[in-house]
Design goal:
Layout lengths: L1 H22 L57 E9 L5 E7 L9 E9 L6 E2 L5 E5 L5 E8 L7 E20 L5 E16 L3 E2 L6 E9 L4 E4 L4 E7 L8 E8 L5 E2 L2 E17 L1
Antiparallel strand pairs: 1-7, 2-7, 3-6, 3-7, 4-7, 5-6, 8-15, 9-14, 10-13, 10-15, 11-15, 12-13
Length: 280
């Protein structure tokens, strides 16, 4: 029975296949009437366009503040001190002016001192800047002059002494620090002669003062020594024939108030004019 059943199923299957084949068999010669197997055409996969990233911001540099230079404060010494000095002469010929530069620009408040000696005595001397106080010996040959004042801001780098006429002379400039520049005392001695210059003497009112002693001589002679604890600072001379002029200066810083005096020993006898000045 089983075999009979299988045979029947097989017969039915063959019959169905024949019916499907007949149904899809083309009825004309047109290929379009025939079943054509479909060809699979893959659909292109859409590639998504990536969203662009925002640009990386360029870091902005933070400006660095330029530090402001703080001026170096000029220290005030505990006692007055000679900061700088310089000198010049008219040389081997006469001239109508003498000038000299400060080695460095003086600091405001420093005591500035200018000393000059000229031959003949009739010359009238002036400076190239204003504000100076003067002490003058101009009655005999050689004329001896001294000017002083406190240095100002942006001080002129040069000092020029106008002689008033063509003459022979010498000049020196001094810069002291640690002193107010207030005149304490001064002394003048005119018309001296000999191989020893005795400068005027006086008493100072306070300790730690600047005392300067100078003289002009004609004809010029060299100084061998100063007394009274004075330090020789300048000994110069012009060399113009017949009118040569010497200028010599010494100074000291006092430690106590009291009498100030000094003498200068010369190489030979000559005529001279001397002065001494003190500042607190």
């Amino acid at each position: 029975m089983t075999r009979t059943l299988l045979a029947a199923v097989l017969a039915v299957s063959l019959s169905v296949t024949a019916v499907w084949a007949a149904a899809f068999k083309g009825t004309t010669t047109n290929p379009g009437n025939k079943f054509v197997a479909a060809t699979f055409i893959p659909t292109a996969t859409r590639t998504s366009t990536p969203t662009p990233l925002p640009p990386t911001p360029t870091p902005t540099s933070t400006p660095t503040n330029t530090p402001t230079r703080t001026p170096t404060a000029t220290s005030t010494p505990s006692a007055p001190v000679l900061v700088q000095k310089s000198w010049n002469t008219t040389g081997a010929s006469s001239a109508s002016a003498i000038g000299q530069f400060w080695p460095s620009t003086p600091v405001a408040g420093d005591l500035l001192v200018v000393v000059a000696a000229v031959n003949p005595a009739s010359a009238v001397l002036t400076l190239n800047t204003a504000g100076w106080s003067s002490i003058v010996l101009n009655t005999t040959t050689p004329s001896t002059y001294l000017w002083y004042r406190a240095a100002v801001s942006s001080e002129n780098i040069a000092v020029i002494v106008t002689l008033g006429s063509s003459t022979s002379g010498a000049m020196a400039i001094f810069d002291y620090r640690g002193v107010t520049g207030t005149l304490d005392n001064d002394g003048l001695l005119r018309g001296g002669s000999g191989s020893t210059v005795t400068t005027p003497s006086f008493s100072t009112l306070a300790a730690k003062e600047v005392v300067i002693s100078c003289f002009g001589a004609a004809p010029n002679k060299t100084v061998s020594s100063w007394s009274g604890s004075f330090t020789a600072e300048v000994d110069i001379a012009s060399t113009a024939a017949g009118t040569n002029t010497e200028l010599a200066c010494a100074d000291r810083i006092t430690t106590v108030a009291g009498l100030q005096s000094t003498t200068a020993t010369l190489s030979n006898t000559t005529s001279w004019n001397a002065l001494m000045v003190a500042w607190q």
